[in-house]
């Protein structure tokens, strides 16, 4: 039985997802369609597009997912740029990768990632990931209500 939980965040959760594999992006999008909370997904294909998105959009995302291996600018490079920008560094960033190599994990946490997650491989695993994100970032964590004014 699923019991709706009250959300401390009154606005929909805006997620920016940087992923260069269209199939992976669609997989994530399909899983988020099952979410209980309101989620608005924004997709870009690489780290450079993340930086351009953050620079131009008046409404910053509440959460960023970064694939670690992308063309032009990879996830760790993008994470460094986000953390170096005073207006963006408050945004939680979750790194996603197929890799579980210690050097990749440590490299992302050293750059101040909020989490490092191996990409779910099956739809049930992806739905579990989405539920975990939703339960924590929507129903437990307090997020700034107007992130763009930070």
Order of helices and strands: EHEHEHEHEH
**How many runs of DSSP E, i.e. beta strands?**
5
Q: Could you report the average pLDDT, rounded to the nearest whole number?
A: 88
- Rg for CA atoms: 15 Å
Q: Which structural category do the helix and sheet elements fall into?
A: alpha/beta
The CATH architecture assignment turns out to be 3-Layer(aba) Sandwich
Number of helical elements? 5
Distance separating the two termini: 38 Å
Query: Which percent bin holds the helix content?
Result: 25-40%
**Could you name the CATH homologous superfamily?**
Response regulator
Number of domains: 1
- What's the arrangement of strands in the largest beta sheet? 2-1-3-4-5
Q: Choose one word for the global shape.
A: globular
Which residues form runs of ≥5 with pLDDT under 50? Answer: 1-5
The largest sheet is:
5 strands, parallel
Please report which band the strand proportion falls in: under 5%, 5-15%, 15-25%, 25-35%, 35-45% or over 45%.
Answer: 15-25%
CATH topology: Rossmann fold
Q: Specify the CATH class.
A: Alpha Beta
For this entry, what is the oligomeric state of its chains?
single chain
